[in-house]
């Protein structure tokens, strides 16, 4: 069964049509790039999958169910905004995640914090912006979820950390889980992806594999994206 | 992330070429056991499904074989390895000839130049 399915999914904010008639399926075991220019509807789609927004029309299904309490137990979401309470330390946040999510793997989180040299006792508000982003990502990637929704996970971190994050995605690869990464930094993530979804102005433009684009177009996804979305 | 990929070719086919090179150069000797798909994917910095596809391609080409429980191994068929080496060499020659052709050299000119170099 598809881990994520959209059937005629539309979302409207007042007069603005953010998403229109999206039909797509994401199978387990895939790492997918959700790509599109600013304002194309990427974050809206991710928020719908999370139940943070509700569809205006159509359906979105997570493992066959509408987003809700049960789907949240299997979806690990990285927001594009900072949302962690800033008075908490990394250690307190791990306590928090351990309480909230049955699938939270504390040992894995601690290992990653150590690897990136982040002090567990430091409070969020004492951390630099990049470090806060790392902590957020570590917490999200330390869950054994079936669907990871990562909204701009590598935007604010340095290239070495970016490599470590992509490496983590590969090492944590699980054939029964899917990872969806929304990003503008296509060249950086391209070789980690199986599939790409292009969206533009709320419409699904294409869903295909990275190697199919390379095979048919004779260019990378990054180059192809620049061509399709040329300003 | 040390592996660098060209933009104009599928990633899996570049993985196939890289591994072939390892086999014909002896870096991966006949009968050697390959690392797991996940380990190889991590080393190359690529998606595990893409690495899996490359390995299946090499299996089809008879350069690696898998044993259900023990993993994947480099073929012990020296002839298959030799054939692969020749094919790779011919590919190199072809692109060399093409580049030399653009410089205005024909075969004889190239041979004369090679001899001059000795």
Structural class of chain B: mainly alpha
Give me the Rg of chain A, rounded. 17 Å
Mean pLDDT across every amino acid position of chain B? 93
Number of E-state strands of chain A: 9
Residues in helix, % of chain A: 25-40%
- Poorly predicted tracts of residues of chain A: none
Number of helices of chain B: 5
What does this entry show, briefly?
Chain A has 231 residues and is of the alpha/beta class. Chain A has nine helices and nine strands. The model of chain A has no long low-confidence stretch (mean pLDDT 94).
List the helices and strands and how they pair.
The complex is a heterodimer of chains A (231) and B (118).
Chain A: E1 4-13, E2 16-26, E3 31-35, H1 42-50, E4 57-62, H2 69-72, E5 75-78, H3 90-100, H4 106-115, H5 129-141, E6 147-151, H6 159-171, E7 178-182, H7 186-189, E8 195-200, E9 203-209, H8 210-217, H9 221-228
Parallel strand pairs in A: 3-7, 3-8, 5-6, 6-7
Antiparallel strand pairs in A: 1-2, 1-4, 8-9
Chain B: H1 11-25, H2 37-44, H3 48-60, E1 64-67, E2 71-74, H4 78-102, H5 107-116
Antiparallel strand pairs in B: 1-2
What does it look like?
The complex is a heterodimer of chains A (231) and B (118). Chain A is an alpha/beta fold. Chain A has 2 domains: 4-74 and 146-228, Rossmann fold (3-Layer(aba) Sandwich), CATH 3.40.50; 84-144, Helicase, Ruva Protein, domain 3 (Orthogonal Bundle). In chain A, 35% of the residues lie in helices and 26% in strands. Chain A has helices at residues 42-50, 69-72, 90-100, 106-115, 129-141, 159-171, 186-189, 210-217, 221-228, and strands at 4-13, 16-26, 31-35, 57-62, 75-78, 147-151, 178-182, 195-200, 203-209. Chain A has a 6-stranded mixed sheet with strand order 5-6-7-3-8-9, sandwiched between helices. Chain A has a 3-stranded antiparallel sheet with strand order 2-1-4, with helices on one face. The radius of gyration of chain A is 17 Å and the shape is globular. The N and C termini of chain A lie far apart (38 Å). Chain B is mostly helical and 118 residues long. Chain B has a two-stranded antiparallel ribbon with strand order 1-2. The radius of gyration of chain B is 17 Å and the shape is elongated. The termini of chain B are far apart. Chain A binds chain B through residues 29-31, 163, 166-167, 170-171, 173, 191-194, 210-211, 214-215, 218-220, 222-223, and chain B through 1, 5, 7-13, 38, 41-42, 45-50, 53.
């Amino acid at each position: 069964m598809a881990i994520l399915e959209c059937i005629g999914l539309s979302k409207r904010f007042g007069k603005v049509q953010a998403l229109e008639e999206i039909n797509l399926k994401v199978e387990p075991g895939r790492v997918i790039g959700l790509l599109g220019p600013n304002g194309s509807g990427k974050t809206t789609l991710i928020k719908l999958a999370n139940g943070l927004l509700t569809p205006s029309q159509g359906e979105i299904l997570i493992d066959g169910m509408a987003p809700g309490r049960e789907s949240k137990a299997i979806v690990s979401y990285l927001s594009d905004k900072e949302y962690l309470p800033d008075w908490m330390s990394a250690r307190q946040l791990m306590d928090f995640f351990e309480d909230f999510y049955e699938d939270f793997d504390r040992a894995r989180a601690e290992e990653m914090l150590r690897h990136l040299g982040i002090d567990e006792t430091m409070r969020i508000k004492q951390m630099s912006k990049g470090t806060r982003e790392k902590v957020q990502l570590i917490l999200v990637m330390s869950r054994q979820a079936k669907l990871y929704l990562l909204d701009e996970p590598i935007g604010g971190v340095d290239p070495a950390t970016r490599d470590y994050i992509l490496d983590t995605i590969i090492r944590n690869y699980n054939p029964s889980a899917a990872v969806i990464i929304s990003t503008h930094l296509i060249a950086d993530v391209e070789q980690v992806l199986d599939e790409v979804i292009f969206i533009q102005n709320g419409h699904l433009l294409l869903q295909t594999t990275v190697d199919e684009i390379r095979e048919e177009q004779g260019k990378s996804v990054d180059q192809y994206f620049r061509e399709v979305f040329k300003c | 992330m040390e592996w660098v990929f060209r933009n104009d070719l599928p990633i899996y086919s570049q993985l196939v070429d890289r591994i072939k090179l390892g086999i014909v150069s002896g870096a991966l000797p006949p009968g050697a056991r390959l690392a797991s798909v996940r380990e190889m994917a991590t080393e190359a910095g690529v998606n595990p499904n893409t690495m899996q596809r490359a390995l299946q391609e090499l299996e089809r080409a008879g350069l690696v074989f898998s044993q259900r429980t023990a993993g994947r191994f480099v073929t012990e068929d020296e002839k298959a390895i030799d054939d692969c080496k020749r094919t790779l060499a011919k590919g190199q020659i072809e692109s060399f000839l093409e580049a030399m052709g653009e410089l205005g050299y024909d075969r004889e000119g190239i041979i004369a130049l090679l001899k001059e170099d000795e």
